């Protein structure tokens, strides 16, 4: 998977996990074990190659000793440009009826 193939939101999530993991002093392998996840899975999360399930997301955030709301606030650092965030949501193809600034249409 090339860097261009990765979703911006997955990359941002992975970078935030890596930053917080390192700040807590965990190696990637030690953190994966602490979360009850495989090290290779954790590596792919941190590289933005995995679309993490909600259950695994909760495990990771809890292991970082954070509330979900606290963790997701850290993603703001990765989405300073709202245009990048809108593109990350893939709304252009998936839900064109709900684009900001465009009158709402019904399917």
TrEMBL record:
Alphabetized SUPFAM superfamilies for the sequence: lambda repressor-like DNA-binding domains
Stored PANTHER family: HTH-TYPE TRANSCRIPTIONAL REGULATOR, HTH-TYPE TRANSCRIPTIONAL REGULATOR SUTR
Keywords from the UniProt entry: DNA-binding, Transcription, Transcription regulation
Sample GO molecular function, one term: DNA binding
Naturally occurring in which organism (per UniProt): Comamonas suwonensis
Protein name in the entry: Helix-turn-helix transcriptional regulator
Top-level taxonomic group: Bacteria
GO cellular component terms given for this protein: cytosol
Domain HTH cro/C1-type residue range list: 17-71
Pfam family, one: HTH_3
Statement: the UniProt record of this protein carries the keyword DNA-binding: yes
């Amino acid at each position: 998977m090339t860097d261009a193939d990765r979703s911006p939101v997955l990359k941002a999530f992975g970078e935030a996990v890596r930053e917080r993991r390192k700040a807590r002093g965990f190696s990637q392998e030690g953190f994966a074990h602490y979360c009850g996840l495989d090290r290779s899975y954790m590596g792919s999360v941190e590289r933005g190659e995995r679309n993490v399930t909600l259950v695994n997301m909760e495990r990771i955030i809890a292991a970082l000793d954070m509330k979900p709301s606290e963790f997701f606030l850290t993603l703001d650092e990765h989405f300073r440009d709202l245009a990048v965030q809108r593109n990350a949501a893939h709304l252009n193809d998936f839900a064109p009826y709900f684009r900001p600034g465009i009158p709402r249409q019904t399917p």
